[in-house]
Structures are given as structure tokens and as C-alpha cells.
């Protein structure tokens, strides 16, 4: 909720240590905040086990967010479904300059 109303924060690192992952629910909540946040430029969600549903939620947020320039989604178990949704979002998002998607259980489809 805080990210929805924050008007000063430019960068956030939510790198997950062992046992501290946001999970799918957390990913969906972050995505909802990104839809309305107007200041965040860099977000690191490395290793948060967002899963395909969290990946799709982030993708929907990236379609409307116009401030994020860099997003780290490494090791989030997005799978092909989540990564393909992110790729589709990048077709309309013109602000992302850096995106990291390593370690997301991809196959040839993604």
C-alpha cells in the first residue's frame, strides 16, 4: 500500500533471502502498486518466488507504468507463462531499459 502513495522513492531492492520470499501474493500486491506509482525507477525482486501468476501481474503493471526503467526478476520461478507475459508487456512499455529474467525455469517456448 505504501508504494501506491509514495512520491519520493526512486529505487527499491526486495532481494529475498532464504525463507523471506514475497511469493505470488506479494508479487500481485507489488504489481498493483506499480500500476499507480509515479516515481519508482528501479525495482529488484530477485529470488522472490513470484511464480507465473506473479509474473503475469507484473506484466500487467508494466503495461501501464511509465517510470520503471530497470527491473530484476531473476530467480522468481516465472516459467514460460510469466516470461511470455512480460515479453508481451514490453511491446507497449517504452521506459524499461534493463530487465533481468535469468533462472526462471524457461523452456524453448519462452
Total of DSSP H or I helical runs spanning 4+ residues: 4
Let me know the largest β-sheet: 4 strands, parallel
Please write the string of helix (H) and strand (E) elements: HEHEHEHE
Number of DSSP strand runs: 4
The CA-CA distance between the termini, in Å, is 32 Å
Task: Compute the average pLDDT.
Answer: 93
Strand line-up across the major sheet: 1-2-3-4
Throw out a few tags for this protein.
single chain, 110 residues, alpha/beta, 4 helices, 40% helix
List the SSEs and their pairings.
Blueprint: H1 2-5, E1 11-13, H2 23-36, E2 42-44, H3 51-64, E3 70-72, H4 79-90, E4 98-100
Model description:
The chain is an alpha/beta fold. It has helices at residues 2-5, 23-36, 51-64, 79-90, and strands spanning 11-13, 42-44, 70-72, 98-100. A four-stranded parallel sheet has the order 1-2-3-4, with no helix packed on it. Helix 2 (23-36) runs parallel beside helix 3 (51-64) and helix 3 (51-64) runs parallel beside helix 4. The longest helix has 14 residues, at 23-36.
In short:
The protein is α/β, with parallel strands linked by helices and 110 residues long. 40% of the residues lie in helices and 11% in strands.
